[in-house]
Amino acid sequence: xxxxxxxxxxxxxxxxxxxxxxxxxxxxxxxxxxxxxxxxxxxxxxxxxxxxxxxxxxxxxxxxxxxxxxxxxxxxxxxxxxxxxxxxxxxxxxxxxxxxxxxxxxxxxxxxxxxxxxxxxxxxxxxxxxxxxxxxxxxxxxxxxxxxxxxxxxxxxxxxxxxxxxxxxxxxxxxxxxxxxxxxxxxxxxxxxxxxxxxxxxxxxxxxxxxxxxxxxxxxxxxxxxxxxxxxxxxxxxxxxxxxxxxxxxxxxxxxxxxxxxxxxxxxxxxxxxxxxxxxxxxxxxxxxxxxxxxxxxxxxxxxxxxxxxxxxxxxxxxxxxxxxxxxxxxxxxxxxxxxxxxxxxxxxxxxxxxxxxxxxxxxxxxxxxxxxxxxxxxxxxxxxxxxxxxxxxxxxxxxxxxxxxxxxxxxxxxxxxxxxxxxxxxxxxxxxxxxxxxxxxxx
Length: 444
Prior knowledge:
Blueprint: H1 14-31, H2 47-74, H3 80-91, H4 101-120, H5 134-150, H6 153-173, H7 180-257, H8 263-290, H9 308-317, E1 322-326, H10 335-355, E2 361-368, E3 371-378, H11 395-407, E4 410-415, E5 421-428
Parallel strand pairs: 1-2
Antiparallel strand pairs: 2-3, 3-5, 4-5
Helix pairs in contact: 1-6, 2-3, 2-5, 3-4, 4-5, 5-7, 6-7, 7-8, 7-11, 9-10, 10-11
């Protein structure tokens, strides 16, 4: 009877290789700190918070050195010189807990083992703990807490395993002695490490959340800017399309309006009209890309300064006391400036309605020194009236800045001392044509 070939046997050293790899990672975690030697709470906003870890470790060191020496000499009958050396070795490294807790563990842990071996050779009292003395046990818990706050989970688990193994090994060395402190340190050490690791992970999660919120806020601001630019581009499409249409009509009608045109001139006008039509087609395709899905184009003409009076009257009917001061003669206002001025006033009045309902508002539009000056100033909101929005998104100011930048002007916004707000835009106007200068000729 034939048998089907069996699959390849699993590698015999799979578990051994995994164990070796984990041991290497554990050894690396115990020998290499996972963080730079920056003090704990180094990023705290207040100076006293940054100094707090140093005050704590200084107090711990100043407390545990004399207490350890006193316990070793009185309860364990250790000679004074040896007790002093052990006390300094076990407690002085506590000064490193603020910035190098793992390096402090490298010193304190061997010193505690040496202290346990010294105590093993003495005759302690009936109530004396072994293998870890009471001061060594409490100081070690502070050390474990610092490790839990700074080191990775693998490192703190490795420290706990090594500590428990050392306590078990010392108990095997002297099984006749009760190793109560070894069991107590293992239990309390696990609790302290869990608490420290939980606090550290919560702090890291909070920090990552703050970083993500900062990134999200920057992305939101960038998205808002792009949306405002797209909206402005859609609005300016009508302005540019109007001029392109005029060019097309003038180029098409030139051979009929101007007699005696040569054949090359007529071909040139035809070429200009064709280029204008092609440009209009490209603009329509561009507008279809800029327009959001499912939205229709605005068929109404874009507003301008001639509709400011209607805008202010509608605002007054909505309950906002507003006044308009519009110069009778503004000169020639380019379409882009005309549209931008209207939108700036519109957005400024909308912001007053949202954030300071009922505040008296003054709108002024003047032409001076070759610039169109748009000023919207509102006073403080009446106290009985609550604002519709407690905090703005800033989208309106973004749109204002983009419109002013598009025209080559400047925008100044900010709060007033009395609690109001001021929006001032200054946009350049084309130079006025001198009456003595001859008008440009339309003949070729």
